[in-house]
Design goal:
Number of helices: 15
Shape: globular
CATH superfamily: Amidase signature (AS) domain
CATH class: Alpha Beta
Oligomer: single chain
Number of strands: 11
Strand content: 5-15%
Structural class: alpha/beta
Helix content: 25-40%
Number of domains: 1
Radius of gyration: 21 Å
């Protein structure tokens, strides 16, 4: 039997239905690989071997009874450790939550369980999803499978690395300002951020509530679409979630597709080889009859400052609950309530989380609220209007996912600003609430490059279809 961890979700499903192998064998193949490879990569915070085998056995019983089997039944997945699974620890990679055990399932987990997915374990992230490199975890440093001396990207670095290293067939992550797409780009896998509200956030540990969205990682665009279709939909437990059919289109015709290329996204300081790869992909689309049009997103330069003002403000609000009294580990030091609050937070939270809490608290404070927060929200509206205007002329917008390939471990930790700039091409998408996907687009110096396709609200279908074409532009770079 060939290595089962090389199979896509589609191929694994076919093999299970034809009884070429069992769900138990498929799960064992991944668990064996985790045992062999994860000592180097550190993608997993906890491996759920017992749970995985019991879930796999249920699917084998289902198949033997010739019952209808969903596409994800028996498929081993990894789950970012800020998404709750009932009865399993959920730390958000923070000391303050290291003893917290979830008491309910996130809605997306409930849907995956109903589809028969197998949970291999919880994977690493930047603490409370705050970071672009996965170096801010309180527990381990996840490494890029393509070069162990480089970062996997963040915050969903464990999810991307697990798929890239074939430690899982797919994974869930969360994307607040590029946290799915950036690591997907750095690790050479597919990562997709749905339209805001398309996937319920119930059971996701909140970072910035108007920006957060759960989405899939996978080996192929088709696999990512399968996971997305399983977890999307309205949820009464999340008032921002919405049930929407895909935008009605005729059968997808590549020759009718209009792709916009924003002039503001090819910037000075961008890796020239990365730009070359993206330009080649644009040329290949053109050769297939796609109409390529230059578009302008004039407020792009404000996207990062606006993102970090709004994000930090919402972080400050969401993190207030972790005071050692209501939530989180309580410090044993302190003579009074204020001491307990201060010591619990300083002992339990890392530098990046505290930095963002302080920034957000400052922005929301009296005298600065109008100057920073209100102004940022006004510019957020202008950024959304830029996209609305561009989408009157084109169906999707094509950009690089990142201006560079994966950088070295420790390279940007001492300068938070250069770290924040890693998100320069991805943050605006969250501000506008749009769907976007990162697809592997060749390599530079043996490191993956990501191509980003941005869609109209609730038009995931078009970016999936266009993405399936883009992934054929070069040989697969997965699983080396």
């Amino acid at each position: 039997m060939s290595d089962l961890t090389t199979l896509t979700i589609v191929k694994a499903h076919e093999g299970l239905i034809k009884k070429e192998f069992s769900a138990l064998e498929l799960t064992k193949a991944y668990l064996d690989r985790i045992r062999e490879e994860d000592e180097k990569i550190h993608a997993f915070l906890v491996v759920l071997e017992e749970l995985a085998f019991s879930q796999a056995k249920e699917i084998d019983d289902l198949i033997s009874l010739k019952k209808e089997t969903p596409l994800l039944a028996g498929i081993p997945l990894a789950i970012k450790d800020n998404i709750l699974i009932d009865g399993i620890k959920c730390t958000a990679a923070s000391k303050i939550l290291e003893d917290y055990t979830a008491t309910y399932d996130a809605t997306c987990i409930k849907k995956l369980k109903n589809a028969g997915a197998v949970f291999l374990g919880k994977v690493n992230l930047d603490e409370f999803a705050m970071g672009s490199s996965c170096e801010n975890s309180a527990f381990v440093q996840t490494r890029n499978p393509h070069d162990l001396n480089r970062v996997p990207g963040g915050s969903s670095g464990g999810s991307a690395a697990s798929v890239s290293a074939r430690l899982s067939a797919g994974a869930l992550g969360s994307d607040t300002g590029g946290s799915i797409r950036l690591p997907a780009s750095f690790c050479g896998v597919v990562g997709m951020k749905p339209t805001y509200g398309r996937v319920s956030r119930y059971g996701l540990i909140a970072m910035a509530s108007s920006l957060d969205q759960i989405g899939p990682f996978a080996k192929t665009v088709e696999d990512a679409e399968i996971i997305f279709k399983t977890i999307c939909g309205e949820d009464s437990l999340d008032s921002t979630s919405i049930e929407r059919e895909d935008i009605k289109r005729e059968k997808f015709d590549i020759k009718k597709l209009r792709i916009g290329v924003p002039k503001e996204y090819f910037i000075e300081g961008m890796n020239l080889e990365v730009e070359k790869n993206i330009r080649q992909a644009i040329k290949k689309y053109e050769e297939l009859g796609v109409k390529i049009e230059e578009v302008s997103l004039p407020h792009t330069e404000y996207a990062m400052p606006v993102y970090y003002i709004i994000c930090a403000s919402e972080v400050s609000s969401n993190m207030a609950r972790y005071d050692g009294i209501r939530y989180g580990k309580r410090s044993s030091k302190g003579e009074n309530l204020l001491d307990t609050y201060l010591n619990s937070k300083s002992e339990g939270l890392g530098d990046e989380v505290r930095r963002r809490v302080m920034l957000g608290t400052y922005v929301l404070s009296s005298g600065y609220y109008d100057a920073y927060y209100v102004r940022a929200q006004k510019i957020r509206s202008l950024i959304k209007q830029d996209f609305d205007k561009a989408f009157k002329k084109v169906d999707i917008i094509l950009t690089p996912t990142s201006p560079c390939t994966a950088f070295s471990l420790g390279e940007k930790t001492k300068d938070p600003l250069t770290m924040y700039l890693s998100d320069v091409f991805v943050g605006a998408v969250n501000l506008a609430g749009l769907p976007a996907i990162s697809i592997p687009c060749g390599k530079v110096d043996n490191l993956p490059v990501g191509l980003q396709l941005i869609g109209k609200p609730f038009d995931e279908k078009t970016i999936f279809e266009a993405g399936k074409i883009a992934e054929n532009f070069q040989a697969p770079i997965m699983g080396e």
